[in-house]
Amino acid sequence: MEVEQKQACTELLELVIDGQATQKQHDELMGHLEKCEECREEYLLSKSIKDSLKNHIKPSTSPTGLANSIQNKISETAFLK
Amino acid sequence: MGERMSYESKDKQRVFNEEFMPHIDAMYNFAYRLTLDEDDAKDLVQETFMKAYRFINSFETGTNAKAWLFRILKNSFINNYRKKSKQPNKVDYQEVESFYNSDSVNENITTDLRVETVQHLIGDEITNALNSLDVDFRTVIILCDLEGFTYEEMAKILDIPIGTVRSRLHRARNLLKEKLKQYASSLGYKDKRK
Ligand SMILES: [Zn+2]
Fold first, then answer.
1. Which residue, B23, B57, B84, sits at the end of a domain?
2. Which residues from chain B sit within 8 angstroms of residue A77, using beta carbons?
3. Matching Pfam families, A to Z (chain A) (predicted)?
4. How many whole angstroms separate alpha carbon B166 and alpha carbon B140?
5. Domain containing B19: what range?
6. What is the CATH number of the domain that holds B61?
7. Is the Cβ pair A56, B123 closer than 8 Å?
8. Contact B141, A18 (CB under 8 A)
9. What number is the average pLDDT over the span A68-78?
């Protein structure tokens, strides 16, 4: 594949994976993936990495007391004014 | 767009509680992933909320509070922690406006990292790979993949053009793939020894 075309593909691919492609761009990529194994593999790999990040790195809740201590400080600040 | 008025004191507290406080967990997670230290993360979140309160008049009700707070947090992080480090601008990577200009696109990174391998990696390996990235690269992956911000929101949070967001993200992902590949091959090595 031509380097230039490959770049365009990767750019499109990232837009789709990041959920920021238009319908037209999405369809364009899907059409291309049917024909191009190289991009299909790249798409699946990038998608699996994105999914792994989301699935494995779960958000934690903020430590106990942090919200309270912030709100106390804010009340103090507001009161002082 | 609309006229910006300064809030009355009691409105300030209301906006603060209704629009800012709900993001405390996301803020803490972001802070922790930047600093990789629980105490530093707490301090950073606290400082961010204090600044948010102080500058509350520059926040427009109804706009994206989360992105606004993330921006403050990121700036505080840079001010506090970058300065402390001996090499303030260690990452002197060249960022280009064009999507790729680097040779990374020609590197055949995908050849020996397979989808099945990625799926077999455990949480610690994914986390370590992410944490091993330089903070600027780590940040774009956190914002995009973990927090789900759009490129446009990221551009605002990071004060960089969208083109730079995209090229930085692309490079960050290639670096992450490299790291994952290293884990995968070390796993393969272990398997063989069994
Ligand atoms: Zn292709």
1. B84
2. 50, 53
3. zf-HC2 (PF13490)
4. 9
5. 9-84
6. 1.10.1740.10
7. yes
8. no
9. 89
- For A28, the token pair is 């364009």
Is A20's CB within 8 Å of B119's CB? no
pLDDT 10s digits, B92-125: 444 544 455 444 444 444 447 888 888 888 888 8
Dist. CA B33–CA B136, nearest whole Å: 12
What mean pLDDT comes out for the span B57-73?
Answer: 93
Residue A22: exposure state from Cβ atoms within 10 A (0-12, 13-18, ≥19): exposed
A5 at B interface, C-beta within 8 A: no
pTM for this model (two decimals): 0.85
CB atoms within 10 A of CB B133: 20
Cα R_g (chain B), whole angstroms:
19
Residue B22 and residue B103 in one domain:
no
pLDDT of residue B31: 97
Q: ipTM score here?
A: 0.91
Do B24 and B45 reside in the same domain of the chain? Answer: yes
- Which of B21, B141, B177 minimises the CB distance to A67? B21
Q: How many domains, in total, are found in chain B?
A: 2
Cβ contact B39:B46 at 8 Å: no
Which of B84, B111, B134 delimits the end of a domain? B84
